[in-house]
Amino acid sequence: MTRKRRRLWILLLCAIGVGSATALTLTAFQDNIVFFRSPSDIMAERPAPERSFRLGGLVEAGSVQREEAAAGARPTVRFRVTDGAHAIPVTYQGVLPDLFREGQGVVTAGRFGLDGMFRATEVLARHDETYMPPEVADALKRAGHWQPEQGTPPPAATWNTLQPARTGSGS
Amino acid sequence: MIAELGHYALALGLILALAQAILPLLGAEMRNGRMMATGAPLALGQCLAIATAFGCLMYSYAINDTTVVNVVQNSHSAKPMLYKITGTWGNHEGSLVLWIMILAMCGAAVSAFGRELPTALRARVLGVLGLISVGFLAFTIRTSNPFERVWPPAPDGQGLNPILQDIGLAMHPPLLYLGYVGYAVTFAFAIAALIEGRVDAAWGRWVRPWSLAAWSFLTLGIALGSWWAYYELGWGGYWFWDPVENASLLPWLIGTALLHSAIVVEKREALKTWTILLAIIAFGMSLLGTFLVRSGVLNSVHSFANDPERGLFILGLLMFYLAGAFLLFAVRARAMIPTGIFSPVSREGAIVLNNLLVCSITAVVFVGTLWPLFADALFGTKVSVGPPFFNSASFPLVVPLLLAMAAGPLMPWKRAQLSSVVMKLWWVAVIGFGAFFVALLASGQKVLPAVGFAFAAWVIGAAFADIADRTALFRTNLGNAWNRAKGLPRAAWGAAIAHAGIGITAAGIAGMGLAQERLVSLAAGESTTLAGYEWRLDSVRDEVGPNWTARRAHITLLRDGRELRVMQPARRFFPLARQNTTEVAIHTNLMADLYAVIGEEDAATGRAVIRLHYNLLAPWIWLGAAVMALGGGLSLADRRVRVSAPNRAAIRAAAGAARA
């Protein structure tokens, strides 16, 4: 085998490898990219019920309710996720993560039903209590309730009574 | 005083690293023997200085010195001594010092064990290692000084994140860093080779032990992290495709490719430029992992403090090292002339295929991991890429990889006959199909796990076929085969064992595809069933530890009404951090894990949420990784690898050629 033929072979193989990797990535992207939406985004545009996405915000203070379940049934938790401007009711069947707490940042993955209820299949609260998921911080900023430059977020219990901050002022 | 000593040692380390980066490199350029000879003592001195700094930091943690900011932020007097010490690297600053210390130790090892290396090559390798040290030491001293003081002293520390108060922290980061930093050495060899414009079999032979060692440590580090997540987080899973997990997988994948292509350089003097490129990318991926963990740009369970300045600094370092390396590569790569010529169907061909597939998988994981970053920067949309993407995009590439890795070792170099490989492997294929149908029937027609079992059997069987072929097990009598087995090079055993390890891990992953889970709310005395066992919640009691309180459940495991054992999962509460952690109860018989977690309790009704898992073959996932690392270690112990110089005459000739 000459050097040219060998190079051709290797180039061909590389093309196949790169091509299949690209094709696989693109097809997998199509089905599996999960978008992030804040409660305000959902209020602005109702997501399709069959499309799963991530909902993030703060767990509204006083909203966590554990449903009484019969012996052997899957336990269900209800709570509300707020970005200060709007709140979305969420139900979840499962064990909440150790860091799940009222008034703290949370990201949930699931689908938004026609009845206005978000059915979470996954609840993520991060490992560190001072950590705010970037998407949640962004959602809070967009809702106009918290400027990160001014320090830690205000207590979540007061959020729904707060007047939305004026948008466009400052940066 | 001790903290100041540590700070001083760190600064001294920076000065020595700077000298190590300049003198030997310059000396090699000017062919000045005396300047080149400074590399080894400087590397040793740097190693001593950094080790002193690390020791000082560890001492500050051990005595809980509350005048040191780093200790105040990450430790507490009530913490058990073991976790005070391991807490040294349970934070951004301390782990960075550990990273640099391991790098300095690698430099010292190159200078201590690399006496056989040509003088110029060794000087250049040490110089590049020094250059890497300079960047990271400057980063540490500039943005992340672990020895910063606070006055007046804080009354006590703020405590370590409870999740990190575990033996996993003692082992996982050091092993992982040994892997990451090991690729700094192969990177240094690659850069040195580019500067010299020469790659030969001897170069391949010197790089191989380093890439083997780095790969073995990285394998262990990743497996340990996965196992730690499995028992500590209580989610019942072993791999979450979390960005930082992926960040450790990327250098592992490239490292796997490097490991194989370096063999081709050594044996056949082919794939030289490609191997150099892999060595550069492997270290680039290690740096990328460091950047992702410490900048907080990606949403991950591992996030350290998110400090944009740190992120920018590391990004700058990443750009500097990689841009420099690629520039050098672009200029010099033409100088490497391949001499070995081979047919597509040959051992070399199989390794090229391995490289191609492994790099394709790397590309897929890379794009998936960084896509949220790009999507945010380019389109301003917040997206996340989860396990379904990685599974559906990478599995189709894993299948041909597993198919090919069975055949590769059975092919001779240069030119192979497919028919003879088929003759050696047909019975393994039969076993694979058998495993598929047995698994399909036993699991109730779950196709994917059955496919996984088939490939596991195929890979393990092929590793056995490889050894059987080399020892002529089926062609002669047993005594003869035994003698041949004893004479087989350890690298051959290592390769077969590491390949079998992949098969064992594959079986574990396939088994986890059949895992069962049950989530129930139980009151004391009630029971539920899972996987043929009856699980009875007897009680939930209070418990007190050194710096935590806990609620511990007693769950009796019954089979056919017979009590087997008591499982005691607990939910700990750390008042200092106001944080809960999950203490999983795991009972394993090596074929399956029984796994129990206690969640929240309802104060009104006294019911507790209990999550139960039956994880078939789960221990095999990490057992397989340990077997892989064992294979790597065996190869490392091969005499041909250990005695890194081919022979002294060849070196003298090579050194002479370099000088000429």
Describe, in plain words, how this protein is organized in 3D.
The complex is a heterodimer of chains A (171) and B (660). Chain A is built from 3 helices and 7 strands, in the order αβαββββββα. With 171 residues, chain A is α+β, with helices and mostly antiparallel strands. The longest helix of chain A is centred in the first third of the chain and has 30 residues, at 3-32. Chain A has 2 domains: 1-31; 36-158, OB fold (Dihydrolipoamide Acetyltransferase, E2P) (Beta Barrel), CATH 2.40.50.140. With 660 residues, chain B is of the alpha+beta class. Chain B folds into 4 domains: 1-165, no CATH class; 178-390, no CATH class; 393-511, no CATH class; 516-619. Chain B has 21 helices and 11 strands. Chain B has helices at 2-30, 33-37, 39-62, 69-74, 81-86, 92-113, 119-143, 167-196, 201-232, 243-268, 272-295, 308-332, 347-379, 387-407, 418-442, 447-470, 478-487, 490-512, 618-636, 639-642, 648-659, and strands at residues 383-385, 516-522, 527-530, 533-544, 549-559, 562-567, 570-574, 579-583, 585-588, 592-601, 608-616. In chain B, the strands form 2 sheets. In chain B, strands 3, 4, 5, 6, 7 and 8 form a 6-stranded antiparallel beta sheet that branches. In chain B, strand 4 and strand 5 form a beta hairpin. In chain B, helix 1 runs antiparallel to helix 7. Classes of the chains: A alpha+beta (171), B alpha+beta (660). At the A-B interface, helix 1, strand 1 and helix 3 of A face helix 13, strand 1, helix 14, strand 2 and strand 8 of B.
